[in-house]
Amino acid sequence: MKKVMMGTEAAALGAKLARVQVVSGYPITPQTVIVENLADIIGRSELKAKYMPVESEHSAMASCIGASLTGARAFTATSSQGLAYMHEMLHYAAGVRVPVVMVNCNRALASPWNLYCDHTDSLAQRDTGWGQYYCADAQDVLDSILIAYNVAEQAFLPIMINMDAFYLTHTSELVDVPDQKVVDIFLPSYQPSSKLDVDDPKTFGNVCGADLFTSIKYRRHCDTLSLEKVWDRAATRFCDLFNRLHPTVEAYQTEDADVCVIGIGTASGAMRLAVDRLREEGLKVGSLRLAMMRPFPREGFEEAIANVRHLIVIDRDVSFGAEGIVAQELKAILFDRHGDVKLTSFIAGVGGKDISVETIVPMVQQAISGAGTAVEAGTTLWADVLP
Amino acid sequence: MEFEKKIISASDLPIMPSTIGTMAWNRTGDWRYLTPAVANKLAPCTWDCPAAVPISEYLNALRNGHVERGLKLLLANNPLPRLTGRLCYHPCQAKCVRRKIDRAISIQQIERFLADLGTDVTIEKNSKTDKKVAVIGSGPLGLSCAFYLGCWGCQVVVLDPRDQAGGALVDLSPEKVDPQLLVSEIGRLIRLADIKLETGVAVDFDRPGEVVSKADLVILDPTGLSEDFSVPAGAVAFNPFADKTVDSDIIAAKLPQNLKPFKAPMIAHYIGAGRLMARKAFDRLVMPSGQLRLAAPNPHLSRQMVNIEDIRIEHFLSSDLAERAIAKHGTWEWERALQEAECCLSCGTCNLCLQCVSFCPDASIRLDEDETAVTVDLDHCKGCGICAYECPRGVITMETISA
Amino acid sequence: MNEHARRKRNLFTPGHYGCPGCGATLAMRQTLCALGEDTIVVMPAGCWSTLIGIYPYTCLTVPVVSVAFASTAAVAAGVKAGLSIQGNGHTTVLAWAGDGGTFDIGLQALSGAAERNDDILFICYDNEAYMNTGIQRSSATPAGAWTTTTPDSALKDQKKKNIVEIMAAHRIPYAATVSIGAPEDLNDKLKKAKDVRGSRFVHLFAPCPTGWGHASELTIEVARQAVKSRVFPLYEVFDGEIWQLSPMADKIGVDAYLKYQRRFKKILAEDYLHFQMQVDEDWQRLLNKCQPNNSTSHRQGVDTG
């Protein structure tokens, strides 16, 4: 059934369709509609779940972990400051291998305060071991929550579904809401064999010696790497049932491209428009949206840019003192092709500054010709800096 | 206690960091410097009892409702409890630690009550050997000596020139000792020890009768005989308290000055003397002491006395103490006797209060499977000393024990 | 574990890494004795999270999750939510934190859970400092006590935070103080707490021979003296309003309590009368709050479902 709704409403519906059993809610702009809607959905018994109005995001993640360990499907949502606040618990959740799914609304981190779109918050958490998925539109938000639970509960790893502040959270789009019965076929109930159970008592997470710790981490690393394949398989099954694709990379006209513009999130829409415009001017350019950032979707990425010689990465984030995080990740992946491929790193759109066709085209031109208004800082070129 | 092997392979690990077993394999007992020693010690009452009656043990039996066991304990260690329960000057009560709280336990009253119960119990005895003993004189010392020798397996005959058995006890006034009671008590002693008594038999050593001539050992009891009884030639004087070995086939008990003439309140001393005499006589008759089960006297006699400092009076002050009924004279009812027995602190004797078990931070001192005692888990006990400190009756002490 | 083994097992087994004479381990043992096997334990960083055993082994045979320091009450609330949404309303969720994880870093989550009246039993085993990390002061450390961060040159000025008053202010159905030195009282109160629905808080006094500097065999004795001297009185609070004293032995002076502990050496030598005065004042304040001694004056917590 198709309905017009904001991304946050879609997220709440996704959680409802996923039949989550415990929802922890702490408000933070621009996630608030998610926790508000879920409070109402649960209050009106449209979803049989426990709603916990926790007193902080740290406790939101803590309570999700507790619930998940008993075998309940747990959900929460947050943004920027809240995500940073629960940082310790993100490590913990991945370490204790609970399949919690969390929606994060990508927003800038203080100081100074800024409520608008910025990817530094979730990218700064990429070492925690959570799967990370970045949505393109409201449909993607709803669907990816369902796929995420399917994947998380197979791999026993938590997954973060990211959506751009305001571009997705507060923009209304047409969303096809799937039928609960079909969702139930795709996503059965969560039945872990190992959990907190008085009939099979175990201690979870006590102090571990160095040699065992290494082996545990090794296994976890392997399982985290496997998320790419597990997601692909789940997305394929999802497509069989719902006829929609949610790949880990989304390539646009890269097969014959010399140049490729790369980014994550909603800016990819503008990137595709920019590709169309530039192709009209004769440039063999394509664009790539990385949907999954953790694990890095190596196979899909390498396949998409097999013939590309110049990558132009637009980071809506920065790792201060280094460079754009996505650029950094790509450089690591491309290490063996060093000298073969050129990579230009742009920082643009941070703190909610728009990334549009009008800003992307000059960036591509500057990357190719060397002339343009973006300012150099280390190995990055910063668009949008005031003169 | 099962010890599980440490895991050796990463593939043994579950996906989630959850445990697969307990810590029992970790021998924290290696941390220990001092080890708790759980050993019953003699209560001050028992230590001072001239007859060596295991007082706290039979009080514990009573308290736990095991009347028959208590009576057997008493009868096996005191051949004349109906008499001591009336005559004895009860030094046990003078030493009772309960005095520090309110009053001494009325041990004598309880003993009397228990002895008067007159239930038809039997006590443990060795089977009879071919050793024959003649005891001449049925005073408390002679009777006691005969009783123990009989229990340990000798064929004993007690001979008394008078018509009534009891020796000096017969001369006591009826107010002190009811004659019927005396007869029945001696009768019980004879029955329990499976020995014989012949009264009205004057013994002439120049013309000894069958009993005396066939006896392997003849013992003369001065408390049963008059002062002018002539000690036969060849009879060796034997002081039960001082002399170590019996060196003759005819011995005459020789008592220290404080026990002459016969004093009824000191009856327990005579009974104790009889026991000592029997012990040493038995050694002469049956050489290797390990030969018969009851050869060693009750194990309690070889124990140390409890350290009074280890009795934790504060523990008893703060716990629920039964209301004390005062009864000085007459015989008691069962409820009163039980109440009084319950007030016994059980000094030095484990009564399974389980304070040690409940206060161990390592769950390393436990009630046995058969629930008769507590034992220390030496693989895990860290030697913190809490059990020893918290035992209110000084049963546990911390010792240096080499591996 | 098969059914037979499961029923016959001890909930607390030996071989753990607790110091000889550890009050905290005894506290857990007495607690599990009272609560039984239908219990899930949530414990944060602290003495217990290390002494429980080295992965993959544990000394407790009830389910346990060892969580981040600040999160105990929140994880416990989540566990309870997870259980109840799956239809299990009977399992006791025990949040088991030390004084650091309750009074300091854990206070926010605890307050949040109490405000929501989450159906958890939160027990703080209080050894009055961050013992696991090497005896550093917490807000539960009494004034005048030596710790490594309040050495003799800088003994703690501030009084011990009154955590039960804080929890009572949340109007939770049941709060109480218990001590390992009064095991019957502890057993009664925990059995009572187990059946109350809603947030329950128990402040459990657990001496630490290592951190307090007393002989290992005196752990129970020190706990006893704390109650007798009213340094740690025993009482209950119902619905945050009705304060009721528990039976205790007659009050004695604080020197009987202080004398065993090396951490109070300086106080004993110099000025324990000030300490005595503080204890007397606090005791009087508690008496003022309490109902006249009446064992029928309390009510059970209301089932908030």
Write the layout of secondary structure elements.
The complex is a heterotrimer of chains A (387), B (403) and C (305).
Chain A: E1 2-6, H1 7-17, E2 22-24, H2 32-43, E3 50-52, H3 57-69, E4 74-79, H4 80-85, H5 87-96, E5 101-106, H6 120-123, E6 131-134, H7 138-155, E7 159-164, E8 172-176, H8 180-186, E9 203-204, H9 210-225, H10 227-242, E10 249-252, E11 259-263, H11 267-280, E12 285-290, E13 292-294, H12 298-304, E14 310-315, H13 325-333, E15 342-347, H14 357-369, E16 375-377, E17 380-382
Parallel strand pairs in A: 2-3, 2-4, 4-5, 5-7, 6-7, 11-12, 11-14, 14-15, 15-17
Antiparallel strand pairs in A: 1-8, 6-13, 10-12, 16-17
Helix pairs in contact in A: 1-2, 1-7, 3-5, 7-10, 11-14
Chain B: E1 21-22, E2 35-38, H1 44-48, H2 55-63, H3 67-77, H4 81-87, H5 91-95, H6 107-116, E3 132-136, H7 140-152, E4 155-160, H8 179-193, E5 196-199, H9 210-214, E6 217-220, E7 236-238, E8 250-253, H10 267-285, H11 313-318, H12 334-342, H13 355-358, E9 365-367, E10 374-376, H14 386-390, E11 396-399
Parallel strand pairs in B: 3-4, 3-6, 4-5, 6-8, 7-8
Antiparallel strand pairs in B: 2-11, 9-10
Helix pairs in contact in B: 2-3, 2-12, 4-6, 6-12, 7-8, 7-10
Chain C: H1 3-8, H2 23-35, E1 39-44, H3 47-51, E2 57-58, E3 64-67, H4 72-85, E4 92-98, H5 100-104, H6 107-115, E5 121-126, H7 163-169, E6 174-179, H8 183-195, E7 200-205, H9 209-212, H10 219-228, E8 235-238, E9 242-245, H11 255-258, H12 265-270, H13 272-289
Parallel strand pairs in C: 1-3, 1-4, 4-5, 5-7, 6-7
Antiparallel strand pairs in C: 6-8, 8-9
Helix pairs in contact in C: 2-8, 4-6
Index terms:
heterotrimer; A: Rossmann fold; 7-stranded mixed beta sheet; 14 helices; B: 403 residues; alpha/beta; Alpha-Beta Plaits; Rossmann fold; 11 strands
Q: What does the main sheet of chain A amount to?
A: 7 strands, mixed
In what range is the share of β-strand residues of chain B? 5-15%
Number of strands of chain B: 11
CATH architecture of the largest domain in chain A: 3-Layer(aba) Sandwich
Mean pLDDT of chain A: 96
Task: Work out the number of β strands of chain A.
Answer: 17
How far is the N terminus from the C terminus of chain B? 20 Å
Low-confidence stretches of chain A: none
